[in-house]
Amino acid sequence: MKILIVRTMPNQPKLGMYNLQEIGLAKALVRKGHICDVAYYNNTKEYKEKIEFDDGKCFNILWLRGKKILGEGIYPTLENYLRDYDVIQVGGYIGLTSFFLNKKYSEKTVNYQGPYYYKKNKKSRVRAFVMDNTILRLLNRNEMVVCTKSVLATEYVKTKKINDVTTIGVGLDLDNLTKKENEVKSSDFVEKIRDDKGNKKYLLYVGVLEERRDILFLLKVLKEIKAKDDDYRLIIVGKGKKKYVEKCHEFVMKNGLQDYIYYCNEIEQDSIHGVYECCDAFVLPTKYEIYGMVILEAMYYGLPVFTTYNGGSSTVITEENGCILRSDSAIEWADRIRKIISNSDEYVKLSENAKKTILSCFTWDQLAERFLEVYRKRLEKDNVRK
Fold first, then answer.
1. Where are the extended beta strands (E) located within the chain?
2. Which is nearest to 212 in space by CA: 124, 289, 104?
3. CA 322: distance to chain centroid?
4. Long-range contacts of 341-350 (CB under 8 A, 24+ apart)
5. Residues 222, 257: contact at Cβ < 8 Å?
């Protein structure tokens, strides 16, 4: 099978970035004996780049010169390449590129949807409303084939009267995590938290410091934990807009938490494993998360994850491998975290099951067959129609 994965985000990704989803999936599909290329946005020249891996395997990146229209990358020359592929995977159930492909090449188009309904995401809701009531009406929804990143995304797409929807998830690219010992880098920050560890219990947050991720709530949780157990510390890796970061800093100083937090605004991917290895649990009190790659990463390192019900957790986390909290009470979060970490049997069970879940179900190599099942269904659906 020949597959082209089209990314419509209007920016040029850096290939050294951790876990570019399209590349992780492309490598997994090639490992299974298929031909797979990736189309990425480029705002300068258009060219093809060969990416080699696994001592002889390869795929191509089509750097297509794009135009940003309505927040999406549009590729004027994309059609020149489509005849070379059996299946075209494009992001989202709707969008300008998705519409074009589903309208003209429906027999080979598969959509991969991430976003789901979130009432405070006004910009996305308005865009979806406009698209749903214009170009989506011009498509035959019975012919559309959609796979999604989460249970919540599947539920959302089905409200659009699109019925052929399959929940797949997102995978980890283990090539970026299973480095040889001499390839792993340390850092002053990692050495500091490692030296200070002792009997302390480390909670970890990695990501943007923003209201959507509710860092202020996380600090409130730390405050409640500190009131009952002085051995807990919070490690924060990430940066955010100045106004929100200052607001968080004010809360920290006002509540005397400055000695209970280790903060690093960024850390190299080659060093992040050292942070995970020092920590006891991962906390993500996000209000909305399309998926949350940090959930997968934390689980891979065996950290029990405490998070809200969101895209990633709805698909990956169960009572056997993590903890989903639907409460907005900092006291309840604090008590649940302390209860699980202090119960060695429960903690070990969650830790072991978290890693097993990722290795058995949520690497790109594991997910590749599920994508192929959807691709085959797309092609079979067209054969039945003919």
1. 2-6, 35-42, 47-53, 57-65, 67-69, 72-74, 87-91, 109-113, 146-148, 165-167, 201-206, 232-237, 261-264, 281-284, 305-307, 323-324
2. 289
3. 17
4. 341/201, 341/280, 341/281, 341/304, 347/304, 349/320, 350/304, 350/320, 350/321, 350/322, 350/323
5. yes
Distances (CA, A) of 316 to 30, 167, 251, 341: 25, 11, 32, 20
Q: Are 306 and 313 in contact (CB under 8 A)?
A: no
Q: Of all helices (H) and strands (E), which one includes residue 222?
A: helix 215-228
The domain covering 175-361 belongs, at the CATH homologous superfamily level, to Glycogen Phosphorylase B; (3.40.50.2000)
The CA-atom distances, in angstroms, between 287 and each of 8, 121, 218, 237, 315 are 25, 11, 12, 19, 16
**What's at 18, amino acid-wise?**
Y
What are the domain boundaries of the chain? 2-173+364-385, 175-361
Token digits of residue 32: 């299974």
Cα 377 from Cα 1, distance rounded (Å): 13
The full DSSP string for 41-68 is: EESS--EEEEEEETTTEEEEEEEEE-EE
pLDDT tens per residue across span 165-175: 999 999 999 88
pTM of the prediction?
0.92
Q: Which CATH architecture has domain 2-173+364-385?
A: 3-Layer(aba) Sandwich (3.40)
Distance (Å, whole) CA 319 – CA 349:
10
pLDDT in tens, 318-352: 999 999 999 999 999 999 999 999 999 999 999 99
| Residues, the chain | 386
